[in-house]
Structure formats: C-alpha cells, structure tokens
Amino acid sequence: MTDTPQNKTIQAELQAAQERSMLFARPGFLIRRLHQIHSGLFTEETKAFNITPVQYSLLTALAEHGEMDQNTLAMEIGLERTTVAEVLPRLESREFIERNQSAQDRRVKLVKLSRKGKAMVRRMEEAAQRAHDRTIEHLPAAERQLFMLQLIRLVEANNHKSVAPLRLR
C-alpha cells in the first residue's frame, strides 16, 4: 500500500480498531460476526413472515429460476444438499413450494414455488431489502458498492474451496 494521505488514514483507522480488539485482525471472525448481525437484522425486519434467511434464499432462487431439482437448488444458493432436504419439508408444509418426482428420473425431486410461495416472496421483498440496507448503512454511501464488489470478488475467488459451492455464471 502506497503512503498516500488516504491510505495513511485507512492504516491508522485499522490499527486503532485492532488495538480495541485483536479479533479485528481476523477476517474470518469479522465475516462471521457480520453474518450474525445481518441475520438479526433480517429476523427483525421479517419477523411477521416467520421465514428464515435460508428459507428466503431458497424461495427467491425458485422465484428467479423456476422449477429445479433439489441438488441444483442447493447449488443455486451455495447450501449443502442435506440442509436443503431438511428445509424444504417445512416450506412444503406451509404450502410455499410443491415437490414432485421427476418423470424422467424417479429418484429426482423437482421443486417449484406455489402461488402462495410467489406471493410470500413478493410480500417479503421490501422487508428483506431493508435488512440488507441496514447491514451496510454505516458505510459511507460512496463505499457501499465497493464493499459489495469486494465481497463478490472474495466469494468468486474462493467459491471452489467451499463444501457447498455456489453456482457461478
């Protein structure tokens, strides 16, 4: 990092933060902590719907891509297949999704949003967006897009190392 005035300010702010807590020198800790914070904000904003962040991710993936098999759905959101298999029955019991066996392969379960599921996704959009906005609202507006881009770069660069890789296009 070159010694520009902006970089010196960043270095000083980073050093001061790391003096407050040694944990602030650990990207993994900060990522996990931010995830906890976001989950709390999501729950706060969406409590009326009684939908978890994982359930919302599944519903929105189905809304975007349409019917798909459970394995593909897992890859669409970077979740382990077993977790998807545990969450889908809850969504099905609330009539947000429909699951059927594939006509081509009886071992494959196809999943699609029901009308009720589509309506739920639409009703939740604003609340979920508020949670996303609140997660990064303390960054200066000019830095929010850069922060998002940096997160995307890290996810894409390390995606192949995940136990449940995200399908990248």
TrEMBL record:
It holds the Pfam family MarR. InterPro entries: HTH_MarR-typ, Tscrpt_reg_MarR-type_CS, WH-like_DNA-bd_sf, WH_DNA-bd_sf. It comes from the Bacteria. PROSITE patterns: HTH_MARR_1, HTH_MARR_2. GO terms for molecular function: DNA binding; DNA-binding transcription factor activity. Keywords: DNA-binding, Transcription, Transcription regulation. The keyword Calcium does not apply. Residues 27-156 form the HTH marR-type domain. The keyword Transcription regulation applies. This is HTH-type transcriptional repressor NicR. It comes from Variovorax paradoxus. The lineage of its organism: Bacteria, Pseudomonadati, Pseudomonadota, Betaproteobacteria, Burkholderiales.
